[in-house]
Design goal:
- This protein is an alpha/beta fold and 239 residues long.
- Helices cover 42% and strands 20% of the residues.
- The protein is built from 8 helices and 11 strands.
- It is globular and about 50 Å long.
């Protein structure tokens, strides 16, 4: 899988595991820098040269969630941060997405899958700068024209609904928490809890209801995912 000058920061206190992951990625032409604790990670991330960050949560001295929040401030919202951890509870996953991670992978990790996810996140991030058309299944969003079509049919959405849909399409097929959507749309000036629910209802009504297969799926206790799900996968999500 050829990769164009990809550089990642691997934050992992287990040096043997870090070496195993790093060697595998570097064999795929992904350059890896290493940080074995949170403070080193924050210092290295301030250079702004990384295409993605892989972050363990069980770090010495500084908890990984605290590192994640500070990392997000340093690298900005466009640099993918992928949690790689042994913590597998739903609460931890939700907390990770709320703190700003783009993906959450539980150890033990299948290295080809990790590589594929890293590359997908980096390409998606790079693609948003040069490519203003998002496509998921038969749903297409031309950002420059502010036009959304599904199956060639033009959909009518308000400006706020377009912003929410763009977030979901940009992050697809990853799960996006409601809190993350609210934070990106409104920052600290959050509206009442029914506002986002109302916009999501309108998006589902336009994007899913007239069509045979839904694209917007609710992941209970985590958030929303926009994805064209195959028939044999549909039992794992709810629309």
């Amino acid at each position: 899988m050829p990769n164009s000058a990809m550089m990642v920061l691997l934050v992992e206190d287990n040096k043997d595991l870090a070496a195993t992951v790093g060697d595998y990625l570097e064999a795929s032409d992904i350059t890896v820098d290493y940080a074995y604790d949170g403070r080193s990670a924050l210092e290295l991330s301030s250079t702004g040269r990384y295409d993605a960050v892989i972050l363990d949560l069980g770090l010495p001295e500084m908890d990984g969630m605290q590192v994640l929040r500070q990392l997000r401030e340093k690298v900005g919202k466009d640099t993918p941060v992928i949690i790689l951890t042994a913590r597998d509870s739903q609460d931890e996953k939700v907390a990770g997405f709320e703190a700003g991670c783009d993906d959450y992978i539980v150890k033990p990790v299948h290295l080809p899958e990790l590589e594929a996810r890293i590359i997908a996140h980096i390409r998606r991030t790079r693609g948003e700068v040069v490519n203003t058309v998002f496509t998921v299944g038969d749903l297409q969003f031309d950002v420059k024209k502010a036009e959304v079509t599904r199956g060639g049919q033009l959909l009518q959405l308000s400006p706020t609904c377009l912003k929410i849909l763009r977030i979901l399409m940009r992050e697809s097929p990853n799960v996006v928490s409601r809190q993350a959507i609210e934070a990106e749309l409104w920052g600290e000036d959050l509206p009442d809890s029914d506002t986002l629910r109302s916009h999501l209802y309108k998006i589902r009504k336009a994007v899913d209801r007239p069509f045979q297969k839904p694209l917007i799926h609710t992941i209970q206790g985590v958030g929303l995912r926009l994805e064209a799900v195959e028939d044999n996968q549909e039992e794992t999500v709810s629309s």
